[in-house]
Amino acid sequence: MTKNNKIKMIEETVKFAEDLILTLENKNTNETISNIILPCLHTAKTYAEVKMFDSPEIKINLSKAAIETSYLTDKNPKYAPLYSKIRVLLEEFSQL
To answer: Considering only CA atoms, which of 76, 95, 92, 94 is closest in space to residue 13?
Structure first.
């Protein structure tokens, strides 16, 4: 997968998470996505956009987002698609 496609994948995952927030009623889950997962995804995206694909910050932030999303998925399986998208991103960026 090309580096530009990886940036697109992050953008799609950010959009998916933002759309998910709009449908949630649980305040704690909203806060987790808004305050932890989305900032991690945005940080990874920023490093990728400035062509710093080798930066450990990308993997660190994707890993943190994956961990937080796995906690949400353990509580409610409806977050599994978000978790899956983040895991795919982590795998893709680990191959660089």
So the answer is: 92
What is the model's pTM?
A: 0.93
Residues in contact with 8: Cβ distance below 8 Å, sequence separation at least 6, in sequence order = none
Which residues constitute the domain of residue 17?
Answer: 3-94
Largest distance between two CA atoms of the chain: 38
What CA–CA distances, in Å, run from 19 to 14, 22, 31, 49?
Answer: 9, 5, 14, 22
Task: For residue 5, name the pLDDT band (cuts at 50, 70, 90).
Answer: very high
In the chain, the number of structural domains is: 1
